[in-house]
Design a protein that fits this description.
Layout: E1 3-12, E2 19-23, E3 33-36, H1 39-59, E4 67-74, H2 76-82, H3 87-94, H4 98-105, H5 113-130
Parallel strand pairs: 1-4
Antiparallel strand pairs: 1-2, 2-3
Helix pairs in contact: 3-4, 3-5
């Protein structure tokens, strides 16, 4: 086995610093999981688990992919942990009640598919707007006045 790409789900549990990550498929008899105090830590932990399982498989003479790449998908809470966006401002931008989005982010409430779709559409619009060629000024605003 050379290279394998696995879908990995990153989710935030209730409380602070409670993130997990799991591959949706096992590799041989190995289920890949990661845990951490942040989404990034959980994502790094699953990569470390893959390295450890690769070593274990080699010692046991078993086949294991030389390289595993993860296609990470984040839930709402892990998304806002991974990307340091202001939840209230983002909620207003995408048209969701800020209080409700904060509840999704902290895992107090779980969004339904309709809300997830609305959040994703809003984030895609934000990404497009940020990449549309607008640039910040590179000197004080008054220096542009002639």
């Amino acid at each position: 086995m050379k290279k394998l790409t696995l879908l990995a789900i990153v989710e935030r549990g209730k409380g602070k610093g409670n993130f997990s990550c799991f591959a949706t498929e096992s590799v041989g008899n190995y289920g890949l999981n990661g845990f951490g105090r942040s989404a990034r830590e959980a994502m790094e932990d699953i990569k470390e688990a893959a390295r450890e399982f690769r070593e274990m498989a080699a010692e046991e003479g078993k086949d294991f992919p030389e390289e595993i790449e993860f296609d990470f998908r984040l839930d709402v809470g892990s998304f806002f942990d991974y990307y340091p966006l202001d939840v209230t401002a983002t909620a207003k931008y995408i048209g969701i009640n800020p209080s409700i989005l904060r509840q999704y982010v902290s895992s107090i409430r779980e969004p339904q598919k309709k809300q997830i779709d609305k959040i994703n559409a809003g984030l895609e619009r934000l990404a497009h707007d940020l990449g549309c060629g607008l640039k910040m000024i590179d000197r004080p605003a008054v220096s542009y006045v002639q």
